[in-house]
Specification:
Layout: H1 10-13, H2 22-25, E1 39-41, H3 57-72, H4 75-78, H5 81-84, E2 87-90, E3 110-115, E4 119-126, E5 129-136
Parallel strand pairs: 1-5
Antiparallel strand pairs: 2-3, 3-4, 4-5
Amino acid sequence: MPENSEKISEEVAVLDSGPIPQAAAVSPAIRDYDNQKVVLSFWAYKQNQCQLHKLDKSEAKHLTSELKKISSALTKHFKHQQSSRIACKPVNKNSEYAILFNNLPPDADLLEVDYTGAGRIFGFLVQNVFNVVTIAKEHLR
């Protein structure tokens, strides 16, 4: 044992047997994002990649319906189509959508939400916030 290390007091070193008390196990500072609804954010929105102007009235209606569905889903269900009814899948950084990763946080996991064949919403989830990157009607080239 190094000379300058402090010894742990006998009182602290002895742990009581049994479950950890609720006050020690759960901190009120920790938020349960899994059980909160998804919130939409457009801070990472890429206007130059947006194809919103190409949507016709029916497709725009489907888009707003999908955005409503996203913002009504609990975070823990968002990526699971059976429980959320949201067609969400991960996007590969080396795909035709690689340009969408530019200027995003390096750890952002881009997701594609396909809605009723009318288009797709790209974004990434941080805690319970779905950051919309762009909305596309057609595949990017």
